[in-house]
């Protein structure tokens, strides 16, 4: 089997260079998380019985369970700038002190940082209570190539930490609408 520094080489279906052998989880050296290992194992088994159906996941959220939790998914600002050009990247940040739930629970330390390329969400970082819970919505948004202003249109349960996502989405929707202000006749 072919290996590299971080593990066994696999293709997009998690197959090694030995056609009847698949590798998933830590041994494949891709993402060293229990949740991604379990997902990869299920994908590999699916591909064994239905070849070509499963694809290795490249977008894996993670969370460090500190207090507050630190979660991430997608690109960092530097990665987005390197891939798309710095002029196309926008960083949207909301301090947790602006979130009603965080203030109510006296858990105001932290922030939500979203990275967009031409309005499309490509990365997210959350330092907040239950950040591991809210990062999944952002992973789904990245996977489905949603624009940040589209997240502003979703109804979020109030008061929750995830209303910070809605607030940043609403800010993006407002900024987008501002571009068309020239269409409004002023008296």
Task: Give a quick rundown of the structure.
With about 190 residues, the protein is an alpha+beta fold. It folds into two domains: about 5-50, no CATH class; about 60-180, FAD/NAD-linked reductase, C-terminal dimerisation domain (Enolase-like, domain 1), CATH 3.30.390.
Written account of the structure:
With 187 residues, the protein is α+β, with helices and mostly antiparallel strands. The chain folds into 2 domains: 3-49, no CATH class; 62-178, Enolase-like, domain 1 (2-Layer Sandwich), CATH 3.30.390.30. The chain is built from 6 helices and 7 strands. It has helices spanning 34-49, 77-84, 100-104, 131-143, 148-151, 163-178; strands spanning 3-4, 7-8, 62-64, 69-74, 89-95, 111-117, 120-128. The strands form 2 sheets. It has a 5-stranded antiparallel sheet with strand order 3-4-7-6-5. Strands 1-2 form a two-stranded antiparallel ribbon. A hairpin with a 2-residue loop joins strand 1 (3-4) and strand 2. The model has no long low-confidence stretch (mean pLDDT 89).
Rg, rounded, reads 20 Å
Category from helices, strands and their pairing:
alpha+beta
Helix content: 25-40%
CATH architecture of the largest domain: 2-Layer Sandwich
Q: Major beta sheet, specifics?
A: 5 strands, antiparallel
Q: What's the number of helices?
A: 6
Content of β-strand: 15-25%
- Mean pLDDT across residues: 89
**Broad CATH class of the largest domain:** Alpha Beta
Strand order, largest beta sheet: 3-4-7-6-5
Give the full name of the CATH homologous superfamily of the largest domain: FAD/NAD-linked reductase, C-terminal dimerisation domain
Report the CATH topology name of the largest domain. Enolase-like, domain 1
Tally of DSSP β-strands: 7
Q: What is the number of domains?
A: 2
Identify low-pLDDT runs.
none
């Amino acid at each position: 089997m072919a290996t590299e520094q971080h593990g066994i080489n696999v293709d997009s279906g998690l197959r090694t260079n030995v056609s009847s052998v698949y590798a998933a989880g830590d041994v494949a050296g891709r993402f060293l998380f229990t949740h991604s290992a379990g997902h990869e194992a299920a994908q590999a088994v699916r591909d064994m019985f239905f070849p070509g159906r499963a694809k290795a996941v490249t977008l894996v959220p993670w969370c460090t369970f500190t207090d507050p939790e630190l979660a991430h998914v997608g690109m960092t600002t530097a990665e987005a700038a390197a891939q798309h050009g710095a002029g196309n990247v926008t960083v949207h940040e909301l301090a947790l002190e602006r979130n009603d739930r965080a203030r109510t629970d006296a858990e105001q330390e932290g922030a939500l940082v979203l990275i967009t390329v031409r309005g499309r969400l490509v990365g997210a970082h959350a330092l907040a209570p239950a950040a591991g819970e809210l990062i999944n919505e952002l992973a789904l948004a990245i996977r489905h190539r949603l624009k940040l202003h589209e997240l502003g249109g979703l109804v979020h349960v109030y008061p929750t930490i995830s209303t910070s996502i809605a607030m940043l989405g609403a800010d993006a929707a407002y900024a987008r609408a501002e571009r068309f202000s020239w269409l409004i006749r002023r008296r």
